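Much of the work behind modern protein science is quiet bookkeeping, done one molecule at a time. The protein below has been through that process, and both of its lines are reproduced in full.


***
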Amino acid sequence: MPAHASKAGGLTPRVEQTLWTTTPPPSGRSATIVAMAARFMPLADVAETLSISAAQAYALVRRGDLRAIQVGGRGQWRVEVTELEAYIDRLYAETERQAREQREVGQEH
């Protein structure tokens, strides 16, 4: 299976960048760097993405608001990028619902 293929058959995003130099590589071709997009994020990165503290990110996981897994011998928490995106989508939907309810209550008065 190619390095960029997932077990489910889909492809994970990858970035290719061609580096231009004043002198070409010995083969006469341009150099290409392939970087895989990370599938999982540590809680510190989740906290930074959401602009919250690490303790708050951990609390989201403990409460079950944000799905995460523990990996490695030390049980480090990791959140799949798609899970973080789904969590953010749920927050947007909840915010929209609350705003709609507030508008409806405001129209009744």
In short: The chain has three helices and five strands. Strands lie at 14-19, 31-36, 40-42, 69-71, 76-80.
